[in-house]
Design a protein that fits this description.
Elements: E1 2-7, E2 21-26, E3 31-35, E4 43-47, E5 52-56
Antiparallel strand pairs: 1-2, 1-4, 2-3, 4-5
Length: 57
């Protein structure tokens, strides 16, 4: 299912201590881990069975 990213903290250059992921908030209030390149306003695809990020649309 596709969702719009409501909140995504800015990526900090060189911050790969968390395997290159950050916690984002979707338009429906759900939070999940996503790659550092995801920004506020992006549309992403989420696997609704696992709640995991799949891809940016």
């Amino acid at each position: 299912m596709d969702f719009k990213v409501k909140e995504a903290p800015p990526a900090v250059r060189g911050d790969t201590s968390k395997s290159g992921n950050k916690i984002i908030t979707l338009e429906n209030g759900t939070t999940l881990n996503a790659p550092m390149f995801i920004e506020e306003g992006d549309i992403i695809r989420v696997n609704t069975e696992t709640g995991e990020y799949v891809e940016r649309i």
